Amino acid sequence: MGKNKLTVPKVSLYNPVELKKVLDLGLEEILKTQLKYDIDYWYSNTIIVCSVICSFLGALAWWYPKPWLESYWHIVAIIIIYIIVDGYLTYIMWFKHSGFAVAIKKPKIEFYSAMISYTPYFQIIMRKDKKEYSIEIEVNKVFDSEGKLLLPLYQGYVEKLINFE
Fold first, then answer.
1. Domain boundaries, given as residue ranges, for the chain
2. 52-96 pLDDT, tens per residue?
3. Burial per residue of 121-144, b for 16 or more beta-carbon CB atoms within 10 angstroms, e otherwise
4. What's the pTM?
C-alpha cells in the first residue's frame, strides 16, 4: 500500500454512509498525523460515559435489596438519574454531535461533514471562533478508481479550509 493512500476498505462510491465514514476518518488522520493537531475526544468520551452509566442504571434497576414496597425510593432514584443522564446524552446526539466529524484542541476548531443530497459533493464545515467556513469536495476527485482515498489530495482541501480566513 502506498503512503499516499489511507488504508481503508474499498468503498462503494454510491454508498453515502460509507463515503462519509471514510472521509471523516481521513479528516481525522490528516489532522492527527500530517498536520500534528491534538484531537479533542470530548464528544466521543462523553457519549461512552453516558452510555455506560445508563447501562449500569438499567442493571441496578433489576437488583432489589428489599421487597417492592420498601425498595420504592431505590427505583424512583434510578429512574430520575436515568432520565437526566439519558436526556443529556440525547441532547448531545441531536444538537451537538449531529454531523460532527472531529475537533481539535488548539486552536479550538470543530469540523462537521455531510454528503450533499442528490449531488456527488461532500461538504466539510469548520467552526472556529463562532464563525463557519465550508468547502465542497467532489467525491470522485478524492478517490481513485479502486475506491481508495487519495490522502494527499484530500489533505490539500483540508489545509485550504484551515487556512481560509
1. 16-39+105-162, 42-96
2. 999 998 888 887 677 777 778 888 888 999 999 999 999 988 887
3. bbebbbebeeeebebebebeebbe
4. 0.74
